[in-house]
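chain below, 265 aa
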Amino acid sequence: MKRLHQAHPSTLKPVDNVASMPRPASSPTLPLSVVTTDTWIGGRPTPNFSAWLETGAPLTARAGNLSPVYRFMKRAVDIVGALAVLALLAPVMVATFVVLCFTTRGNPLFRQERVGLCGKLFPMYKFRTMRLDALALQNQVRNEHDGPIFKNRRDPRVTRLGRLLRSTSIDETPQLFSVLAGHMTLVGPRPPIASEVMKYEPWQLGRLSVVPGLTCLWQVSGRSEIGFEDWVRMDLWYVENQSLLTDLKLLARTPLSVISRKGAY
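prediction:
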């Protein structure tokens, strides 16, 4: 990770040369607190996911910018920013909630457990964009993404309204309440689901070493059009270059990314 940091200073433009980023070594590049060495897959030690699921043992050590001043400033920006955006988007969110109440047979809000800081699970909410039986139908839909991520550009399980909500990122707005609760932050790697994390290679767990966020380098660089390994390497770049300036630059680039709708599906 030190080599990655040296190769890509905090310019917020590593995505232009993402193919030239160093490939991960066969061993973890960040300190892992729960790793077994007696079970090997492809020459890499396997994280102890059983201990994680049964006892909540951390999957990785906390990393990133651990300065108390930075953490205080980041939390202040999160609270002020989340409240400001909620006030601005309140009419849109209320209208979306009301429309979904009449157009879906289930709860307008979709609740899902996500993996947060160091592997801690937390409830994350989104506006519902899929059919109620979406999970049962997943095996009938082709996965168009690599790695453990499941994505399909024309997923038939997504409703007509859901496509609009996804392309405009309105479906993600309830996560602002997760930011206020401290489970998420405005800027940080996107929080994965547990089934995805259980397919991670040890070096990929490094993206869990900071608080997950609403936007990140991946979010402003093409989202679903980016391969999973490059996605993780972008998140690890953020871990190494985490600062208030980096956060503000990514926040400034987010509105244009949302408007462009690139990779949003």
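Residues 135 and 157 are 9 Å apart (CA to CA). The helical segments are 2-7, 49-55, 68-103, 160-167, 175-181, 194-197, 228-240, 244-260.
thats it, cya
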